[in-house]
Amino acid sequence: MMILSSAITDNFGLRELALCAVLLIIVAYAKRLRDYMDYWKNQNVPYEEFSFFRGPISRIAREPFHEIDMKRLKKHGKIFGSFEGPTPTLVVADPDLVKLVLVKYFQELPDRRHVTLNDPILDNMMNLVGADRWRKLRPAASPAFSTGKLRKMNSIIHDCARITTQHLLQIAEEGKDFDPKEFFGHYTLDVIARSAFGARLESRSAQANEFVARLHTAFAIKPTFPLILILYAWILFPFMLKLHIFSPDTFLFLKNFCLNVIEERKQSSVKHQDFLQLMVDAQDRGLQGSAEGSQDAEDELCNLGTEQTVEKAVSTKALSKEEALSQCVSFFIAGQDATSSVLAYTFYLLAVNPDVQQRLREEVDGCFKVDVRFNEENVGSIRPYSYLPFGAGPRNCIGRRLALQALKLCLLHIVHSVELVRTENTRCYEAAIKLRGVKKSSKAAEVILEYWDSAWT
């Protein structure tokens, strides 16, 4: 063997051997790439051709996610293969199959897309962790969103909605243009701070204004071409890069705020019954017992057939400092921007559709004049699992009912008190909504308010 090795070295030289090794590596990589690109073809599944520069990730700089997915759906059908970096991905748009994946076969498919952001706080968020850690975190937070706890929060949310309505009435009297997105940032911040953290931020105070401004910048990162390249590099080498999906300054601000309220709560002798107290208790001694849960009429209306399972909490280990802090930070990140965006977009739609606004107002006033439920005429026409704004199954959004409660109560108070009217600055849908990446309302959705005198107060 030594003679043969020496002969090969003498005949070819180290340079030739190195070249051969490189060629072998290139051939092996090319074969692996070909196998990867033919993955769905070999599975006999319709698929979207692999493309580095024309794939869905590169298109988010020009189009919103939902339009990209709709185009792919029309082209390839309800089930098709795709590629996300080094991972073949199956896209499922059939409601019956979605139900099977999210509910019936949850035990076999409990994990979500694996995401590593290389940050101890972001990587511990409930919606990003793997199944084993999710089973530890979810029971610790679930009792804060039980039916009984939400009933207790009702008066807090009503109070926040009344304060918001008073500010809107002042705007209506002054006849100023109205930017719903910025305005409702204060409302959602107030609801989250008071109901989940027991902290009262005076609406439109200097502290509240700074909070809303910072939370707004958290989602201000635009999907530019350099960011797309960074995203591709992160997908290929997640262990080497720290991806900033939020503004670093805003993230640090939220982290410090949550650290402060956690420390203040630990030093306080008063026991609260809110989300923050659950995180403090879970950090100190873990969770014992079972989470409250019930499948009521509101669940059925909001789930639209999702068959949310009542969670059974088991004895768990205490949460680490990073795990508890992470859930507090994610509460603000997940709740504030999404809820204010929905309210802003709803107000825009009501302003440009005055007939629908009038009908809504009549139904709201009618419900307060007589003891009847809201009209549910179109609930039965919505096919279950065809629209999942909060996800479905055991890993659905934990704050779903709180968000819907805050949305409905705010709309109830405001539609009763003011009328929304479009102005010269109220644009069409394309201008009112930022059509890149995640769809969000913009300042082009401004409306003007007019005082509406109703019989009840």
From TrEMBL:
Could you list this entry's UniProt keywords, alphabetically sorted. Heme, Iron, Membrane, Metal-binding, Monooxygenase, Oxidoreductase, Transmembrane, Transmembrane helix
Which residue windows are transmembrane per the record? 12-30, 224-241
GO MF terms listed in the record are: heme binding; iron ion binding; oxidoreductase activity, acting on paired donors, with incorporation or reduction of molecular oxygen; steroid hydroxylase activity
Q: PROSITE patterns this protein is in?
A: CYTOCHROME_P450
Family annotation (Gene3D superfamilies): Cytochrome P450
Please give the superkingdom of this protein's source. Answer: Eukaryota
Show the Pfam families listed in the entry: p450 (PF00067)
**SUPFAM superfamilies, per the entry:** Cytochrome P450
The protein's role, per its UniProt record: Cytochromes P450 are a group of heme-thiolate monooxygenases. They oxidize a variety of structurally unrelated compounds, including steroids, fatty acids, and xenobiotics.
The entry sums up its family as follows:
Belongs to the cytochrome P450 family.
The protein in question is named: Cytochrome
Which organism is the protein's source? Amblyomma americanum
